[in-house]
Amino acid sequence: MDNQFFKNIEKKTGVNMKDVFELANSLQNADFRDEKTVRHVIRRVSQIANKPVSKEMEDKIVRTIIKDGKKLDFNTISQMMNKKSGK
């Protein structure tokens, strides 16, 4: 893809695309049945998105991913965070 495309995304969102790609690469072989791994990913996504996640919300996301078998991706976490904030 065009480098300018990613620069435009960074400018509009404030999210560093290098961080996003590094996180995406780390997810490829991650074990999402492991609570420690899931918590690490949630915290990293929160940090990249600059959107704090409370302990309560983190626990809820972890339970959902591990127990309910939901796929872990940016969309899943974003949807759960937005439900909490009423968006």
UniProtKB/TrEMBL annotation:
Q: Which InterPro entries match?
A: SpoVIF
Tell me which domain of life the UniProt entry assigns to the organism this sequence originates from: Bacteria
Q: Name one Pfam family in it.
A: SpoVIF
Q: What is this protein called?
A: Sporulation protein
